[in-house]
UniProtKB/TrEMBL annotation:
Protein name as annotated: Transcriptional regulator
Keywords (A to Z) from UniProt: DNA-binding, Transcription, Transcription regulation
Domain spans labelled HTH gntR-type: 3-71
Organism domain of life: Bacteria
Pfam families in the cross-refs: GntR, UTRA
Keyword Transferase attached: no
Length: 238
């Protein structure tokens, strides 16, 4: 079947984006220039370009033109329990984790309430910077009740998956609840995630429960708004 002209142009533009002919954050030729190059009308070019804009490969900037963008990573953990590493690998990206800090701490009111323990009780505090490829993607701070896990001090969380450790210790994650807010990056987070101060971040609060609805994880995750999008699945009630 013959492809429409705009689809052929779309594919050629995509090929040039993927092979680096049009590099990330660089302008592509104008509609007029592309129309002359492909010997088609400007509306045909506009349709091809808009399809790539909708897919996240291009972005139109006022008074500048159209620039090449890295497509956003569709995060699906909002509808399924899956590790960051597994999801990134499934999407063809190489996951990497840098442990910023791992220590015991006293639970403050917020942490204690979410883990259903007493304020001041010991918790493990794990701070990880997680990458998709070479790009920092999310900063995660996780709190774990220490009374349930006596032997976490020697675990290397740059290579070991948290949920796998929970399962090995006899407390597999069975259900999670998440709340989503949007915040702005402060100085510290902007440095770690390589974004501007004030850049929008997706801010997730996650509670992980094992059997008997026992909370064993409270995590605060700050995802870059420029490279992440989230998939939600909603079913009819009743």
């Amino acid at each position: 079947m013959n492809l429409p002209l705009y689809k052929k142009i779309e594919q050629d533009l995509l090929d040039k984006i993927e092979d680096g002919t049009y590099a990330e954050n660089e302008l592509i030729p104008t509609e007029l220039e592309l129309a002359e190059e492909y010997q088609v009308s400007r509306p045909t070019v506009r349709q091809a370009v808009q399809t790539l804009v909708d897919a996240g490969y291009l972005e139109k900037r006022k008074k500048r033109g159209t620039i090449v963008k890295r497509p956003k990573i569709e995060q699906e953990f909002t509808k399924v329990i899956e590790s960051f590493d597994s999801e990134m690998s499934r999407k063809g990206l190489v996951p990497k984790t840098k442990v910023i800090a791992f220590r015991k701490d006293a639970a403050n009111e917020e942490v204690a309430g979410n883990l259903e323990i007493v304020e001041g009780d010991d918790v493990y505090k794990l701070i990880r910077l997680r990458y998709a490829g070479e790009q920092p993607t999310v900063l995660v701070t996780t709190y774990i009740p220490a009374f349930l896990f006596k032997e976490l001090d020697d675990v290397d969380f740059s290579t070991n998956l948290l949920y796998s450790i929970f399962k090995e210790k006899g407390y597999p994650i069975k259900t999670v609840s998440r709340r989503l807010d949007v915040i702005q990056a402060d100085d510290t987070v902007s440095d770690l995630l390589d974004v501007e101060v004030g850049a929008p971040l997706f801010y997730f609060h996650t509670r992980g429960f094992t059997d008997g609805k026992l909370p064993i994880e409270y995590s605060i995750s700050k995802y870059r708004g420029d490279i992440n999008s989230f998939v939600f699945e909603i079913t009819e009630n009743g």
